[in-house]
Amino acid sequence: MAPTRIGLAGLAVMGQNLASSIAEKGFPISAYNRTTSKIDETPERAKLERNLPVYGFHDPASFVNSIQKPRVIMMLVKAGSPADQTIATLSAYMEKCDCIIDGGSEWNENIERHEKARYRRHPSQSCCPGSRQWPLCYLSAKEVQAIL
């Protein structure tokens, strides 16, 4: 399998449908979820319905490494502890200029905490869209709308 251009973490109903929609537009996508049954179900469903290029990964390291650099991972995970755990798990395998786009319903306080946490780096080394500098780019859905 060639590296995909984007990854999706969070395979509830919205995540499964977004993965299929992205693949349907011609972009192979890597998929990951904390619940392993969803990891198997999503690519199977995509293959049966339209033979779409959705690839599931049980291991977070394999998931992250399956994505072309700089990596972009869309995260559709429940706010609070699940989002925190997912960011911590995935960021352990991500590198400078990789980006997590938090598309979930995250609370502003948590977004600010994520931004201030370990995602900052030396200000002279920006590669994240916008004016903020992070070692790992973290964008909330609100920031993505502002960029677009």
UniProtKB/TrEMBL annotation:
Domain of life of the organism encoding this protein: Eukaryota
Pfam family, one: NAD_binding_2
SUPFAM superfamilies named in the record: NAD(P)-binding Rossmann-fold domains
Molecular functions per Gene Ontology: NADP binding; phosphogluconate dehydrogenase (decarboxylating) activity
Record InterPro entries: 6PGDH_NADP-bd, NAD(P)-bd_dom_sf, Pgluconate_DH
Domain 6-phosphogluconate dehydrogenase NADP-binding: 5-117
Protein name in the entry: 6-phosphogluconate dehydrogenase NADP-binding domain-containing protein
Originating species: Musa troglodytarum (fe'i banana)
Lineage: Eukaryota, Viridiplantae, Streptophyta, Embryophyta, Tracheophyta
